[in-house]
Amino acid sequence: MKVEELLKPFPIKEFHPFPRAMLGPGAFEMVGPEAIKLGFRKPLVMTSGLRGSGLVEQLMGSLKWHGIEAVLYDQVESNPKDYNVMDSVALYQENECDSFISIGGGSSHDACKGARISVAHDGRNVNDFEGFNKSENPRNPPHIAISTTAGTGSETSWAYVITDTTTDPNNPHKYVAFDDAAVATLAIDDPTVYYTCPIDYTAQCGFDVLAHASEPYVSRLNFEPSLGNAIRAIKLTNDHLRQATWNPTELAGREGMMYAQYIAAQAFNSGGLGIIHSTSHAISAFYDTHHGLNNAIALPRVWAFNMPTQYKRFAEIAQAMGVDTHGMTDVQAAEAALAAGIRLLRDVGIPEKFVDVTQSSYSKNRLGQGPTEYYKNAPVIKGDKADVDRITNHILGDACTPGNAKECTFDTVRPVVEHCMNGDLDDLLS
After folding, report:
1. What is the rounded distance in angstroms from the CA atom of residue 55 to the CA atom of residue 113?
2. Is the four-CA dihedral 356, 362, 364, 365 of positive or negative sign?
3. Within 249-372, where are the H helices?
4. How confident is residue 375, by pLDDT bands cut at 50, 70 and 90?
5. Cis before 371? omega within 30
6. Of 98-102, 208-212, 353-357, 363-367, which range is least confident?
7. Using an 8 Å Cβ cutoff, are 44 and 99 in contact?
8. What is the pLDDT of residue 4?
9. pLDDT in the model for residue 10
10. How far apart, in whole angstroms, are the C-alpha atoms of residue 242 and residue 135?
């Protein structure tokens, strides 16, 4: 065997930077002083609107009180689209802004990261930067990222995810761009601003955290600096997600999930992801469903798929999820981890397969809402052969797939997708 074959696929591992961060109750109140310290004069505030929470109004009022003239773009959609990014770039340029503030979940932060990269390249289309470190200008406008959900981790990572609706309008493509130049200048995480998150949205975001933590823990990158954060984030999620979901204004649960999501993102930032995320990207590209929900449905199936390559690591995940593994073999403990993951999913009330996801199944659902013609006319999730095949093909082209614990081909991944669509979770436990 040749040396280069022995070294595949990740002989050199790279540690990617994190931004400075402020974490804890009251951190949100520091946005104005921190913006002044960073020299912000006219930031573009990017958000989905967070309507009903009062957070955007509070932020804009605080900035005004501190003498900062902010411009608001509040049209970011879930699974942010390329046109969201380019519309915000146009607004930034028209108003001669000098900085960015994003407030919300991953959609707001990701759209903002894409906008910053575009602005740094004179307004080039954000889709030009799909891939790894495709930007050519390392300097772009400063950015404060304020998270209002415990899930994304985008405020501390080098990744951003955009849906390309223009290259082929009949086949949307959701891609991950990884770029060291996209890292925020300052991350702000305040658990008290999570209180207004809907119950189901809190649960779904929590499974985004569990995916962010578990995928680097079993990734073929096997990146040692990521493993401690990954396993700790799994434990924090298991310990706090139920409380954060069902007792949303109790600080302990919200703060526990704040730290879980923050360090889980730091784990995948250099430790990689896998086909839980690839599946989620594919489903939301075609159906605009919530990323955390998609991760939750895919996670048990992908754990079962990957388990034969990493029984010991999954046994350690079982321990982090509170399973007493004394006297168990690694195989038995790994299977107990899968059961614990399914128990958590059911405890927080998440749909168990994609065909169960309908327009009324959760509060953030955008099925059939548009605004592009494709999304206005998007069918319900059928889970038929054509559906399974196109999702499988999208997964195989996703940037997260090479890090998956187990080698992925069409023939091996397709049954996983089929089960995500139509399968019974109890089948995984038998």
Report:
1. 21
2. positive
3. 251-271, 275-287, 291-306, 311-320, 330-347
4. confident
5. yes
6. 363-367
7. yes
8. 42
9. 72
10. 40
